[in-house]
């Protein structure tokens, strides 16, 4: 996997920190403080320039409000979620919708479809948070990374391949709430990316899928099993 100057750190579950060659820090699906797979050394987030939120479940936006207020990053999410974040006091929000692309700092972000639910737990209520989504992140060095968010496999992943051709994809494999390795392998066939990084597995007992299971089901694809807190560059 050639990251061409990008630094990529998995913080457990679906949370990633990505540092661009120009020194900007992106966090995708900010859930660190309560994330049982996030190393203690990573729970004190020191810098964020961009927050990307795929959907409103607690294990994806659990720390979005706190980090946004502390670091004032640009927060990118679906427009409906942006309204909720505004009510929580978040200031620098750039809401968008599927099919749109915007420039944020030194990256471009395209919001794409995901097949999942998206209720935001707010106290004792579940608030409508718009639809779940994924992101294709375009870096200035030419690399494109697709973070699928929580999703089942869907046929239009072939459109994501044809339109954006991401070299690296992050896809859930845990089963029960998202794809298992079986569906993820089908997704790999649709996306035809060189490298796959499994996520959303092992955090809770129900999330039983493993990277080794996925590797057995795909050919010609590099399945990279990352360890929480370890940085690839």
What does this molecule look like?
There is one protein chain. It is built from 6 helices and 16 strands. With 233 residues, the protein is an alpha/beta fold. Helix 4 links the parallel strand 12 (144-147) and strand 13. The protein has a 7-stranded mixed β-sheet, with helices on one face. Strands 7-8-11-12-13-14-15 form a 7-stranded mixed β-sheet. The radius of gyration is 16 Å and the shape is globular. It is 20% helix and 29% strand. The model has no long low-confidence stretch (mean pLDDT 97).
Apparent shape: globular
> What number is the mean pLDDT?
97
Fraction of residues in H or I helices: 10-25%
Number of helices: 6
Major sheet: arrangement of strands: 6-5-4-3-2-1-16
Q: Report the β-strand fraction as a percent range.
A: 25-35%
Structural class label: alpha/beta
- Radius of gyration, in Å, reads 16 Å
Alpha-carbon distance between the two ends: 9 Å
Unreliable runs, pLDDT <50, ≥5 residues?
A: none
Oligomer: single chain
Number of strands: 16
Summed up:
The chain has 233 residues and is of the alpha/beta class. 20% of the residues lie in helices and 29% in strands. The strands form three sheets. It has a seven-stranded mixed beta sheet with strand order 6-5-4-3-2-1-16, with helices on one face. A seven-stranded mixed beta sheet has the order 7-8-11-12-13-14-15.
